[in-house]
């Protein structure tokens, strides 16, 4: 048994703008609310991420996706998402302010995902262990 806290499947999207996520929906309202925290934090860190385009669902057509499969298999402290990012551009400020994605913009979004993990664990100080094993000294 492995305790997996996060699973994020990353894809490019051919029709929608910005970055956004798909998450699972659960009967347990508290679990559903906890799952919304990471995308909300990412929205604060990344100007090209859209929480309003983020969707939580359990559509039958998505049953075979990684987030749906693992979301049903793992325990309720695991969070499974699909991160979608536009092939083309993101919107800043209004519908006419499209900014083309560049390699650097994609890299920046990746760094912002990493920052969001730091924010998440600071916010939920439930992880108070070192990030890497501490070497033993003699």
Automatic annotation (TrEMBL):
Origin superkingdom: Eukaryota
InterPro entries for the chain: Cytosolic_carboxypeptidase, Peptidase_M14
Keywords linked to the UniProt accession: Carboxypeptidase, Hydrolase, Protease
Domain named Peptidase M14: residues: 1-121
Cofactor: Zn(2+)
Coiled coil: none
GO biological process, one term: proteolysis
Catalytic site: 84
GO molecular function list: metallocarboxypeptidase activity; zinc ion binding
Entry's family note: Belongs to the peptidase M14 family.
This protein's name: CBPC6 carboxypeptidase
Organism: Sagittarius serpentarius
